[in-house]
Amino acid sequence: MRVWHGKLVLVLGFFGCTLMLTSWRVPPPALWQERTLWRFLFTQPNALLYLPHLKEHKDSLNPIIHLGQGRTGVSLVLGVPTVQRQKQSYLVNTLQSLLYDLSTAERKDIVIIVFVAETNATFVNAVVQSLWDNLPDAVSSGLIEVISPSPYFYPDFSALRETFGDSKERVRWRTKQNLDYSFLMLYAQNKGTYYVQLEDDIIAKQGYSQSIKKYTGNVVAEEWLYLEFSQLGFIGKLFRTSDLPMILEFILMFHKDKPIDWLLDHILWVKVCNPEKDLKHCNNEKARLKRTYKPSLFQHVGLHSSLPGKIQKLKDKDFGKQVLFKGHTNPSATLSSNLKHYQVYTLESAYSGKNFFWGLTPKKGDYILITFTKPEAVKGYLFRSGNIETNGDKFYSTTVEGLPSDSSVIERVKRGELPCCKPSTDGFVVIGSFNNGIAEGDVDGALQNLSAIRLMVYSDSEVWVLLSEIFIKV
User: How far apart are CA 255 and CA 246, in angstroms?
Assistant: First the structure.
């Protein structure tokens, strides 16, 4: 045992060295510790050969696990490296985008690994706290894991050779980036079937998980090295986790020489290009091993690069436009609210399925009222707040309430005779609430017909609110 930044640290075998598990609110289960030890005893790429400085500290390859439940056996492992930026952090928005429309089943079949590629303990702990504060459910469920490297992992970058006309700072940046990707892949390779490399300043297209699983299912029996779900740099590249050891070996071998996307292309060249044939033949052969999916599922949005002073304006032209709302045919109703809408984003347009509703900052007591033209036998409801681009503008501390058209039903609720619901005010009964920006559920048949449905806000919000989907099932 040892103490790391004031936390208890358990030492296990990893990569011929050790694995450190730190306790941070969600301690890894004992079974995870046992399985982790077993998995990492397998032969790994020979990092000590390409990173000889690692021999100086036996803990230099220790992944420090700050958050996680040891999730394994999933279909998709998403790797998100993040670093300290001078201008702006995009990490929380990126993760919210990845989580936005995942179904319950998809949330159980994905693990997102955030690799904080810094050795500054203050910064690492700040990232961990931020993810706890902003994404508590995803963290506590094990959907999101957070790791960081040992302080001994990175070599001395001052002696790097300048190549391709790049400055020393840029050579250092791209070399460290190669090592960051390598470390993340090493940790991720035993977690699931496919590994997708992402960045901390991207947004995902709605339904990306379904699209990836469908496409990989179509080509699973074919020969390929990676699938490309974005054409920018190293974003959105999907690998079989069984291929990661070979890819890692190549990246580590040449990590000081070229950027990661160039190295990836060189792997293709080595595998299939014939020096005795022309460039066209080579490109055709490489295209067999690199499949490009269109439209792209991930878009780069960060303006300020992790390389200090660099402005990154690259956009994936094949990403297209995001779907910002989903329309439904809802029963005829009159709508009212004391929330002021922004520009053309009205409640009426959202209810009719023509646009989304965007309202100014909700306060305690604010409401949205849907009064049906005639009483309706409502079977269920779905209210989705936020959208893939503005995913922070959600309803918090907000209930979904129904108004039974039969006054005797209201009285039965007040007397506690209907376990489905609790009384609210003005005859309304609480039938649900928002969780992670979504309110979804069935309506108990004991309530019979409803005259109205109301969203009631119970605390002040710090952000605006956006309703991207309204569905009243009758």
Answer: 14
In this structure, what token pair is assigned to residue 146? Answer: 């957070």
Rounded to two decimals, what is the model's pTM? 0.68
The string of pLDDT tens digits covering residues 292-337 is 999 999 988 755 445 554 545 566 666 667 778 889 999 999 999 9
Pair of tokens at residue 20: 């450190």
- Alpha helices of 51-140 — where are they, by DSSP H? 91-99, 104-108, 121-134, 136-140
Residues 6+ positions from 248 with CB-CB distance below 8 Å = 45, 182, 185, 186, 189
| Residues in CB range of 18: below 8 A, 6 or more apart | 11, 12, 58, 59, 61, 62
Question: What are the angstrom distances between the C-alpha of 429 and each of 61, 102, 215, 363?
Answer: 56, 29, 45, 21
The sign one gets for the Cα dihedral 194, 133, 305, 297 is: positive
The pLDDT tens digits of the residues spanning 106-160 come to 999 999 999 999 999 999 999 999 999 888 889 999 999 999 999 899 888 887 7
Contact between 336 and 369 under an 8 Å Cβ cutoff? The reply is yes
Cβ neighbours of 290 (radius 10 Å): 16
Distances (CA, A) of 218 to 110, 214, 229, 241: 19, 6, 15, 18
C-alpha 201, offset from chain centre: 11
On the 0-12 / 13-18 / 19+ scale of CB atoms within 10 A, 466 is buried
Cα 323 to chain centroid, rounded: 18
Segments of the chain with pLDDT less than 70:
1-45, 86-88, 302-320
